[in-house]
Amino acid sequence: MKVIGTVGLPGSGKGEAAAVAREEGIPVVTMGDVIREECRERGLDPAEHHGEIATALREENGPAAIAERSLPLIEAELETADVVLVDGLRSGVELDCFEMAFGDEFVLASIEAPFEVRAERLLDRARDDSDLDREALRAREERELGFGMGEAMDRADVRIENTDTLDRFRERVLTLLREGPEALRERNEVTE
Fold this sequence. Notes:
It contains ten helices and five strands. The protein is α/β, with parallel strands linked by helices. Strands 2-3-1-4-5 form a five-stranded parallel sheet, sandwiched between helices.
């Protein structure tokens, strides 16, 4: 059993890492889906209220609320899978939650790219309004860093720079999923 979490600022490549996992038949638990589901339960459009509800859940139920709601989803996937990818940690508190639940079987990968590279990717993706406006993106990053994302990124077991080609990034993710962080380190595919 192995649970691999990803952390990274918007546009860094977390969604692409999740796509690679799905293509490999590895289940993916997306923490943002927990927030989107809560938006729908509250009768709100997830595209417009995602950040607001993420903040509300943490205020109402504590800083680990989203991670705690993700645990049963992860555990259910582990009943039939050897590896599960958890997409989108946002804080050291969430990291603590997963480390307590899974111990040494939990690995955190920080996916990183410079602001301008991420901004261009988000412009191409245009999933929500903050993807179209650099100032909105900076505000979104501030909110996510306010959740403690920087701490989680600093504590990651491995850092994957996503500044090369898409194929190269996908290869690194495959190595992580199939062989673990040590294989990336041995091949000098990560930054420390």
